[in-house]
């Protein structure tokens, strides 16, 4: 099964993606995660991407598009993938759609998680990242995934690991910029969402991201 998942930063897209990945044999590919790994590893790609990411800008298409198309060719994608964070603009959408068609790869689902912009912003600022696994959900504002206290500090509720915040999660200007890009229907990610909504590539599924994690999961799973 091959799936695209869209949602503004803060919509729970990463959390839902991780849940889908547990249920179906898909490799969860997060464009932002690939960039962060490269930054951590000090690679050339990481060095090029860092300045854009820190500002909340998109990394240029000539870096991002080949990076994702190459990633989809790896062996662990043969049985299916869940692509998260890409495409984010119409050029990426069109290039991906064409590349999949020319490789004879079927897109099964296109998932959109909708969320009001202000709620998305509040959610981002409260999220915490586990140093052991980015897919361990921790958020100071949500009782269901609140970090736990250990020796006077908050640690990951799943594994007890230390928690970090993403630098770009605490920077309001960067969050606003990321949301400007996401909600832009002409040149941004909503344009990519609409591209797939109208393209007929994959079944389009839209779920309301304002509900609890479990409710969103239930609604989403009922469509897959
Ligand atoms: P994310 O973890 O999805 O919020 O991504 C973090 C950052 O990585 C974004 O703010 C962008 O700077 C960069 N990024 C991730 N995906 C893309 C993409 N498809 N195109 C361009 N930049 C991206």
Walk me through what this model shows.
The protein is an alpha/beta fold and 224 residues long. The protein has a domain at 2-26 and 79-116 and 173-221: P-loop containing nucleotide triphosphate hydrolases (Rossmann fold). 46% of the residues lie in helices and 17% in strands. The protein is built from nine helices and ten strands. The strands form three sheets. Strands 2-3-1-4-10 form a five-stranded parallel sheet, with helices on both faces. The protein has a three-stranded antiparallel sheet with strand order 6-5-9. Strands 7-8 form a two-stranded antiparallel ribbon. Helix 1 crosses helix 9 (213-223) and helix 5 (90-102) runs parallel beside helix 8 (189-199). The radius of gyration is 17 Å and the shape is globular. The chain starts with a strand and ends with a helix. 33% of the residues are buried. The mean pLDDT is 93.
In short:
It is built from 9 helices and 10 strands.
Order of helices and strands: EHEHHHEHEHEEEEEHHEH
Q: End-to-end distance, in Å?
A: 10 Å
Largest sheet descriptor: 5 strands, parallel
Low-pLDDT sequence parts? none
* Total strand segments: 10
Question: What is the secondary structure topology, with strand pairs?
Answer:
Blueprint: E1 2-6, H1 13-23, E2 27-30, H2 31-40, H3 44-55, H4 61-72, E3 81-84, H5 90-102, E4 109-114, H6 117-126, E5 127-130, E6 138-139, E7 148-150, E8 153-155, E9 163-164, H7 172-183, H8 189-199, E10 203-208, H9 213-223
Parallel strand pairs: 1-3, 1-4, 2-3, 4-10
Antiparallel strand pairs: 5-6, 5-9, 7-8
Bound molecules: adenosine monophosphate (AMP).
